[in-house]
């Protein structure tokens, strides 16, 4: 699917570039606050891939069988259409949760006793309780305080979101006791304003529904998380901008394991873009879980969603024999960090051993190794091998074995093309690294091929053509991932493979 950069209006390009400039500056701060502007009417543009802040230009809200309300296409929508751009009703930055930890150190023992009591109550009547993590609890507090300042936030927006009835909801409690008590105080404070004074039933509705509205509708907010530089703030990664937020209109997107809409953020502004052509009358859906997990069985996807619906379709297997207690992929971020901390040659051996194990073809040498009993019962996700192959490619690059690295990049790309949604943002860095790797070993034709696909997919999802690609990937190009003397870096890499 090819969408020319010229199909994105110049006003939208200018707006997105302006947001990216704001994000680049905010990411340098230790504790950034995100409050970026929505586009003006002039910046929204007309026709083509023009943005919409309501979602109702391209979509309409209708009842979705078994899902409640959802977005449906009013007319045929082309791939690469910006169907919605939105700003959150409330947001909690990642660092805010860390600060909350520091503030509560003095109350630690008291909190632990309260948590034990809550856990006992949960065990006594598990069906009538819903435990929440601290992040969602703090976001609920911030929203309650925002409602106190502006009651219309509840009446006109938040109250319209799922779940819309309170009667069948279980009792909510936060796994962190102090956060739960602070939420109760923020709800009780609503009695101080006219709109809620003497309205005990309404206050009780907010008390019961608000945490669940957050639970079922909040979204992770990350700026350029697909980049390899993302976790490294010192080198330009924007991990400091990570957050969790509640949006209004985006809450009407239902989940699908075959999403036809991709979402991405710059700061707190979130864009929703069709990743394929969508016919009139079809529902537009996003994924509620990481795209690389969408290829797992229905049973695993449903466990990971932790929602009150099953993620199935007519072609799904049952997933019988899979571990219901599986928390997620084996090769987590922590495991990846541990592997990257190893000496390269040792890392190479360990990654290859894990890849064999993930594929179920361990050799005699692996079997003879001292292995914990728990390790023998590991359930491997499909994306575990994919994650290991990325680490293997990076390891070969660091050892100057770029020809072997390119073979691994090709395997990663094959997984992305078969298993990820169309033009998924996570696939773009793979094409970028394959292009740089091929260029470093003199395979100019292959380098251009991968570079062209990277740009095409980037433009489909993010718009802005080659200029915006160069802006988003400028810090990525500075990473010294390969030891070859012919490796392209920085501006030279951009000019050689993605010239203006």
Strand order of the largest sheet: 1-2-12-9
Give Rg in angstroms.
24 Å
- Structural class comes to alpha+beta
Helix proportion range? 40-55%
The overall pLDDT average reads 88
Quick one: overall form? globular
Strand content: 5-15%
Summarize the structure.
This protein has helices at 10-26, 41-44, 94-103, 108-124, 134-149, 152-156, 177-188, 200-217, 298-305, 333-340, 344-359, 364-368, 373-376, 382-398, 402-419, 428-440, 444-462, 465-472, 490-497, and strands at 59-64, 68-73, 82-86, 90-93, 129-132, 171-174, 219-221, 243-246, 254-255, 261-266, 269-274, 283-286.
Describe this structure in words.
It contains 19 helices and twelve strands. The protein is of the alpha+beta class. A hairpin with a 2-residue loop joins strand 10 and strand 11. The two termini are 21 Å apart. The N terminus is likely disordered.
What is this structure's SSE topology?
Blueprint: H1 10-26, H2 41-44, E1 59-64, E2 68-73, E3 82-86, E4 90-93, H3 94-103, H4 108-124, E5 129-132, H5 134-149, H6 152-156, E6 171-174, H7 177-188, H8 200-217, E7 219-221, E8 243-246, E9 254-255, E10 261-266, E11 269-274, E12 283-286, H9 298-305, H10 333-340, H11 344-359, H12 364-368, H13 373-376, H14 382-398, H15 402-419, H16 428-440, H17 444-462, H18 465-472, H19 490-497
Parallel strand pairs: 5-6, 9-12
Antiparallel strand pairs: 1-2, 2-12, 3-11, 4-8, 7-8, 10-11
Helix pairs in contact: 5-7, 5-8, 11-14, 14-15, 15-16, 16-17, 17-18
Features:
500 residues, alpha+beta, 4-stranded mixed sheet, 3-stranded antiparallel sheet, 45% helix
């Amino acid at each position: 699917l090819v969408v020319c950069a010229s199909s994105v209006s110049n006003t939208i390009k200018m707006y997105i570039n302006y947001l990216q400039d704001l994000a680049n500056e905010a990411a340098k701060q230790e504790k950034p606050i995100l409050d970026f502007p929505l586009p003006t009417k002039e910046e929204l543009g007309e026709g083509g891939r023009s943005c919409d802040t309501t979602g109702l230009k391209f979509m309409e809200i209708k009842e979705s069988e078994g899902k409640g309300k959802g977005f449906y296409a009013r007319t045929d929508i082309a791939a690469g259409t910006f169907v919605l751009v939105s700003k959150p009703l409330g947001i909690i930055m990642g660092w805010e949760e860390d600060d909350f930890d520091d503030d509560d150190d003095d109350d630690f023992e008291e909190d632990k006793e309260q948590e034990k009591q809550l856990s006992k109550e949960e065990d006594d009547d598990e069906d009538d309780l819903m435990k929440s993590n601290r992040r969602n609890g703090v976001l609920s507090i911030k929203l309650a305080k925002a409602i106190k300042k502006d009651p219309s936030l509840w009446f006109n927006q938040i109250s319209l979101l799922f779940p819309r009835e309170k009667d069948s909801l279980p009792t909510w409690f936060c796994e962190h006791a102090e956060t739960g008590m602070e939420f109760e105080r923020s709800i009780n404070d609503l009695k101080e304003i006219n709109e809620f004074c003497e309205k005990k039933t309404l206050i009780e509705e907010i008390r019961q529904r608000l945490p669940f509205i957050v639970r079922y509708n909040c979204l992770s907010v990350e700026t350029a998380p697909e980049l390899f530089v993302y976790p490294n703030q010192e080198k330009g990664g924007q991990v400091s901008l990570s957050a969790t937020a509640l949006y209004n209109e985006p809450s009407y997107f239902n989940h699908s394991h075959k999403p036809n809409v991709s979402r991405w953020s710059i700061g707190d502004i979130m864009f929703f873009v069709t990743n394929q052509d969508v016919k009139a009358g079809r529902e537009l859906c996003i994924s509620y879980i990481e795209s690389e997990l969408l290829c797992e069985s229905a049973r695993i996807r449903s466990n990971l969603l932790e929602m009150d619906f099953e993620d199935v379709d007519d072609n799904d297997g049952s997933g019988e024999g899979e571990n219901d207690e599986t928390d997620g992929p084996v090769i987590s971020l922590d495991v990846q960090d541990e592997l990257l901390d190893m000496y390269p040659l040792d890392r190479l051996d360990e990654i290859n051993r894990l890849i064999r194990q993930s594929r179920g073809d361990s050799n005699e040498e692996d079997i003879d190794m001292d292995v914990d009993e728990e390790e023998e019962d590991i359930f491997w996700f499909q994306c575990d091998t994919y994650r290991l192959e990325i680490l293997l490619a990076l390891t070969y690059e660091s050892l100057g074995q770029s020809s072997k690295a390119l073979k691994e990049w090709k395997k990663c790309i094959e997984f992305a093309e078969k298993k990820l949604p169309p033009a998924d943002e996570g696939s773009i860095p793979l094409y970028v690294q394959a292009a740089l790797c091929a260029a470093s070993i003199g395979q100019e034709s292959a380098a251009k091929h991968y570079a062209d696909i990277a740009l095409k997919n980037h433009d489909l999802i993010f718009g802005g053509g080659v200029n915006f690609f160069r802006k988003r990937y400028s810090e990525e190009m500075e990473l010294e991932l390969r030891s070859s003397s012919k490796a392209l870096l920085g501006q030279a890499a951009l000019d050689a493979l993605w010239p203006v």
